[in-house]
Amino acid sequence: MSIRTVKVSNVSLSASEQHVEGYFSFSGEIEYVEMRSGDESSKIAYVTFKDSQGADNALLLSDAKIDGQSVVIAAATDYQLPPAASDPQESAGGSRSALQKTVGVFKKTAKKTRDFGLKHRPEFTFEAKVPIFGGNGNVGVETKV
């Protein structure tokens, strides 16, 4: 059975759902994040990925700190997504703010750009005109590449 959800314990009380989502967004595409009360000094987060590879990547994170506090990451074998996670309006972004939607688009664009760079390894060159001062008082321009 493949696991798609990780349990993140000891999450700082000041950490938001966006902090947790931002931290794990590089592990894989996130389907849902749920924050729950923990104890008097921390919260628990459940991060569900679209596929098991995202959860596997998240489990590899060691020495993880979210909002300055060390967290513990484990497979959440008994976690059930709440009904709100499967609500079509919610999954289509019906209750998300414009800022959250924009951040989501930015993250996807950044990931695609990074993946393109890793796949194609483009080489960049640039050109600059640099003034050259000669010993005779003349100023010339040399192109450096």
TrEMBL record:
Domain RRM per the UniProt entry, residue ranges: 4-78
Recorded superkingdom: Eukaryota
Signal peptide range: none
Transmembrane regions listed in the UniProt entry: none
One Pfam family matching this protein: RRM_1
Keywords: RNA-binding
GO MF annotation terms: RNA binding
SMART domains, sorted: RRM
Record's protein name: Binding partner of ACD11 1
Native organism: Elaeis guineensis var. tenera (Oil palm)
Highest classification ranks of the organism: Eukaryota, Viridiplantae, Streptophyta, Embryophyta, Tracheophyta
Gene: LOC105037477
